[in-house]
Design a protein that fits this description.
4 helices; Rossmann fold; 168 residues; 5-stranded mixed beta sheet
């Protein structure tokens, strides 16, 4: 390869750069393939859990796999703000991405002392609970899709959050 010497008037633009001329025989040729690629979807069953290091963990299981957490970001932000938290200092795990993993495993792997779980109890989907599990306070609530528009359910959630976060 040959190093190009840059003329003085362009020197300020490339002060930290080294430019090289690549001979034609070293250039790769691009070949187009007619072969179909395998599925481009992620293999969600083998995906590893993210590192969970915050004091609050939110576990969300959507009733429908088509839901996105972005649709509920404002609702979650307001909930967390009322308890003195924010999304940046909270670990959020979507159970729909970890099909074979149990919530107990996620809670045990987290360093969080407080856990808010939405949609875990699918058989009793409208059930609210606040309990202790392995030294952690766990609030179990209905799926988030059922909460954000229902005032009665939001008030039940708020009552449990006040107890969990010691809010007067």
């Amino acid at each position: 390869m040959n190093k190009i010497v840059i003329s003085d008037n362009y020197l300020p633009y490339f002060i930290e750069e080294e430019l090289y001329v690549v001979e034609e025989k070293f250039k790769k040729t691009v070949a187009e393939t007619k072969q179909h690629l395998a599925s481009h979807e992620e293999d969600l069953s083998n995906e590893a859990l993210p590192q969970m290091v915050n004091n609050l963990l939110i576990i969300i299981r959507f009733e429908s796999n088509n839901e996105a957490v972005a649709n509920y970001k404002v609702f979650l932000t307001k909930l967390l703000a009322a308890a003195g938290y924010n999304l940046k200092t909270t670990d959020v795990v979507l159970m729909n991405r970890f099909k074979d993993m149990k919530a107990k495993t996620i809670i045990n792997q987290s360093s969080a002392l407080k856990v808010m779980a939405f949609g875990l109890d699918l058989q009793h989907a409208d059930n609210f609970q606040l309990r202790n599990f392995n030294g952690k306070r766990v609030l179990i609530a209905p799926p988030i899709e059922r909460l954000h528009q229902d005032k009665d359910k939001k008030s039940k959630l708020w009552m449990l959050m006040k107890d969990m976060f010691n809010i007067a």
